[in-house]
Q: What sequence folds into this?
């Protein structure tokens, strides 16, 4: 399984001759929306840092045959594309990869802000590790996760919750996502505390455009 970051929460997963892009959002570079040959595009929720609707049509035009998968609330508001609704426990097979929905709601930002839908995604192919991208939620910690795309910072999170989530999931490997909210000067504080206390030995500090193999 090859994993490439495309800025903030966007991740390209390539396994079993199948290419899946997750959460192409507003903090992602233009290269994200120029990708071709995608078999599926998964959006965990409607926030613009996970789906940039201004640049989305170009990506859709380049990948007309890709399966589009998202939570029901996002499916109702996205203007372009024919979307398949994802949900907790729902399995969708794309090429050689099985995608399974995890969870239902975005984390609480403030009590005065209504919660929206958020469906994370587990990706698995025979003979490959299982990867989990939770979107914007620490609520559900599925079993059997080998590789965790871990949101490192957000208006809805604090570091103790990030560490607790990593401990509950218990992956063999993790790498950061959702980290464009951290300044360069402060990044080491978040990463250092996470790696010191999560209990995950294989923590890979991937930059915004780095690739790793699991």
A:
């Amino acid at each position: 399984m090859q994993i490439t970051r495309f800025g903030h929460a966007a991740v390209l997963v390539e396994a079993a001759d199948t290419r899946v892009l997750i959460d192409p959002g507003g903090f992602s570079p233009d290269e994200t929306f120029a990708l071709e040959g995608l078999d599926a595009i998964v959006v965990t929720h409607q926030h613009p840092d996970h789906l940039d609707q201004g640049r989305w049509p170009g990506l859709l035009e380049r990948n007309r045959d890709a399966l589009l998968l998202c939570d029901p609330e996002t499916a109702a508001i996205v203007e372009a594309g024919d979307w398949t609704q994802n949900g907790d426990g729902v399995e969708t097979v794309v090429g050689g990869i099985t995608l399974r929905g995890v969870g239902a709601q975005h984390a609480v930002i403030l009590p005065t802000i209504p919660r929206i839908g958020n469906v994370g995604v587990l990706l698995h192919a025979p003979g490959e590790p299982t990867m989990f991208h939770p979107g914007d939620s620490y609520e559900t910690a599925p079993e059997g996760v080998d590789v965790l795309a871990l949101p490192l910072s957000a208006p809805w999170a604090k570091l103790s919750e990030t560490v607790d989530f990593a401990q509950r999931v218990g992956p063999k490997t993790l790498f950061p996502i959702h980290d464009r909210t951290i300044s360069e000067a402060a990044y080491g504080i978040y990463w250092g505390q996470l790696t010191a206390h999560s209990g995950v030995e294989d923590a890979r500090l991937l930059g915004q455009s780095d690739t790793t193999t699991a």
Summary: The helical segments are 56-62, 72-77, 159-169, 187-197. Residues 144 and 154 are 25 Å apart (CA to CA). The chain has four helices and 14 strands.
